[in-house]
Amino acid sequence: MKKIAILGSTGSIGTQTLEVVRANHEELEVVALAAGTSVDKMEAQIREFHPALAAMWSEEACADLKKRVADLNVKVVCGMDGLLEIATMPQSQVLVTAIVGMIGIRPTIAAIEAGKDIALANKETLVTAGHIIMPLAAKMGVPILPVDSEHSAIFQSLNGEPRNRVEKILLTASGGPFRGFTREQLAKVQVEDALKHPNWAMGRKITIDSSTLVNKGLEVMEAKWLFGVELEQIQVVVHPQSIIHSMVQYVDGAVIAQLGTPDMKLPIQYALFYPDRRPMHGKKLDFYELGSISFEKPDMETFTGLKLALRAMKKGGSMPTVYNAANEKAVSLFLNRKITYLQIPELIEEAMDQHKVIPDPSVEQILETEKQVYEFLNKEVQQ
């Protein structure tokens, strides 16, 4: 019985992870759950999965949850201290980091230091602190198992192959709901339009990020750290059908790809059972039905989010943190109808332009940079 702890259990990846647990309940046991403010969902999850430990980020939500589950044998903890307690709890073997934002950094580091396997779905951890996380994982002998569909595909395509024979990574992108749009068309985009992804069912923030291609920019940064390649070795390819989840090209010209239906449960299950593969119910790929697939070059002049990500990565140091934090803030403002769709990349660029790079930032400097970016953008929007 493999024992797992989930940070972000009420979000999109968290709930799909629990679906995988339901389907494999004889082999997977949930020992801890953590969420932000969704008390109703968390209570339902505790009553179904009976974890020993549960955490809420919000103090108010934490107090509410304690009252609701007083009849159960579960310890309820709060805030960052609660996340750190879950990350290091002796009973768990795998930590699924499905929490959104940079609050995932400290628990991930703590879990690595405690020798836990990491099933990584939190992009911000490697985008902002890859220079800290990956050497630490190597030192502790801890595997970082990617849950993101693209990175899982790359991970699977590298299986059994010599890493020094990789020529480039081909990171696929659906292109989002606005593929082919002009900037004039993008200027009219409303929140409801941006939340309609053509292929994937995801959380609100990542759905917006997918539409701006910022998500792909974050994935490029993540891939660099996960697979130890140079930025020049990563090529983004738009593949509207989302059937090929990513590919690896080797020095002899051979390309190995991972294909499958657009279902996040596949990479989640692969990470939880790695190196094994387990049967999975649901629709499988039918090539007769598929007929054909297509590929395009990404339009980085219209969707500047991807171009800005490459610029941030080339600058290095604290600049990827600025890119990530500015996007988090801008997306939040857009979802709350405070800015227009095209202002998302504009605000990211403004934040990057005013930042003085810290070459090798500590966790404290990363979190301070995030705070400074939030303050800067709040002033910009109020002007």
Distance between the termini: 56 Å
Order of helices and strands: EHEHEHEHEHEHEHEHHHHEEEHHHHHH
Q: Helix fraction?
A: 40-55%
Low-confidence segments, given as residue ranges, are none
Structural class: alpha/beta
What does this structure look like?
This protein is of the alpha/beta class and 383 residues long. The chain has helices at 12-23, 39-49, 59-68, 79-88, 105-113, 123-140, 149-157, 183-186, 191-194, 204-212, 214-227, 265-273, 287-290, 304-315, 319-335, 343-353, 363-382; strands spanning 2-7, 28-35, 53-56, 75-78, 94-97, 117-120, 144-146, 166-173, 234-238, 244-250, 255-259. The strands form two sheets. Strands 4-3-2-1-5-6-7 form a seven-stranded parallel beta sheet, sandwiched between helices. The radius of gyration is 20 Å and the shape is globular. The model has no long low-confidence stretch (mean pLDDT 95).
